[in-house]
User: Fold this.
Amino acid sequence: METIGLIEDNECLRAVFAAYFRASTSFDIAFAVGDIRDAFQYHAIQPGILLLDVDLPSGSGIDAIPVLHRYFPKAKIVMLSNLKDANLTKQALRNGASGFLLKSNSVDYIHESLLNIGKGGLPFSPETISHLIKPPTGERETDLTKRELEIVKLVSDGLPNKQVADKLFISHFTVNQHIKHIFKKLSLNSKTELVAWYLSYDR
Assistant:
């Protein structure tokens, strides 16, 4: 069972999320606190996922991502916000976030999005994806093939490898091999880095 650390300053919302995930058969709550500083005392627990609010009493959750990664190196950090600003989503990715979900989404949707992390997916709300993802124009020189760019686009849309394979009518193994080649060509190590690269791709 995956464990979640929740950093959310709204007490009512924090209680709702904590109760939901504690009742889940897929997740458990390692801790639920109201500010970044309060989370540091739980660094020995090392949850697999950190759900992080953007606006917190001690400052920006996005700015705190690098610090949280030092305290919780095993955790995938997923932003949880009321804000639909594309620049915030892009900055969160550049700082090392693995996803950006909106509080306006249902708790069931957030639960399903977090489950997809284990399947190779990227947890994003449809609104944040629609604000950020645009097809590359090819203005930047790249060694990626047309098929590889198609895969990058679908991965950046948050699809797990299996769904990428289904959409392109190729095998799951082939998708995995393509992604390995893409990482090597771009000198990247993770899907989060790949999405950040895609978002900075000339349009």
User: Anything to note?
Assistant: The beta strands are 2-7, 27-33, 49-53, 55-56, 59-60, 76-81, 99-102. The longest strand covers residues 27-33.
